[in-house]
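Input record, target 12 of the design panel.
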């Protein structure tokens, strides 16, 4: 029987105090591990140093699992698990395996009957939905929307129509330096009564979460440039 475990370790959403968002149990798990599968080595080492400064960085065995990881590289990680060595999976921000390449490893671990242990921590997607005032019973996450203006307009119009018909809260995101353009596009494309929540810098000191109708967003002052945000739509 394989005794290895895959621990899904949430990381911080930005420069915040970890005691606000991470249980002490998570720190115990990090202390117990020396092998980590991460999306970005620099940010993962910074996170581990912040929450467990006593860990010796030179002792850490780091494997990269990102959007460019090849099947052979994933196989190298699986071989570690096959030896009975537990690993911690760390995303660049927030929850691993949710809108994150770590899902590839979790899929294989489940197929091989290796125990997967999800740990509690901040999820920008769920925190945005919680604070939005929108439908928490029926929602969908769509990741990044198309960049092409024509394709984006079609996609937004489709999501709005689906929300109006079914009541689904539609959740999506944008590259931070295009956030202001996203809000601008929303005000031009969507109907005046459709509501949009912009949840920016969630869990940070300057957290900003606003839910307004499109007609009110047109009058609102905002600046989300280069500030990570989640968008929630309800028609």
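The sequence produced for target 12 reads:
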């Amino acid at each position: 029987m394989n005794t290895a475990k895959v621990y899904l370790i949430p990381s911080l959403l930005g420069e915040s105090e970890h005691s606000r968002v991470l249980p002490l149990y998570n720190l115990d798990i990090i202390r117990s591990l020396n092998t980590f599968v991460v999306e970005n080595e620099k940010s993962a080492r910074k996170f581990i140093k912040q929450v467990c400064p006593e860990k010796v960085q030179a002792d850490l065995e780091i494997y990269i699992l990102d959007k460019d990881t090849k099947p052979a590289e994933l196989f190298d990680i699986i071989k570690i698990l096959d030896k009975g060595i537990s690993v911690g999976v760390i995303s660049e921000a927030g929850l691993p395996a949710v809108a994150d390449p770590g899902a590839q490893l979790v899929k294989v671990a489940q197929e091989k009957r290796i125990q997967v242990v999800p740990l509690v921590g901040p999820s920008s997607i769920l925190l945005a939905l919680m604070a939005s005032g929108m439908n928490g019973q029926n929602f969908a996450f769509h990741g990044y929307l198309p960049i092409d203006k024509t394709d984006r307009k079609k996609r937004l119009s489709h999501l709005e129509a689906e929300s109006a018909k079914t009541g689904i809260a539609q959740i999506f995101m944008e590259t931070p330096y295009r956030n202001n353009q996203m809000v601008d596009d929303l005000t031009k494309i969507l109907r005046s009564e459709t509501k949009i929540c912009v949840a920016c810098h969630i869990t940070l000191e300057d957290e900003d979460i606003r839910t307004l109708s499109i007609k009110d967003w047109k009058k609102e002052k905002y600046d989300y440039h280069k500030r990570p945000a989640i968008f929630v739509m309800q028609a």
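The helical segments are 24-32, 41-51, 71-82, 103-111, 124-132, 149-166, 179-189, 214-217.
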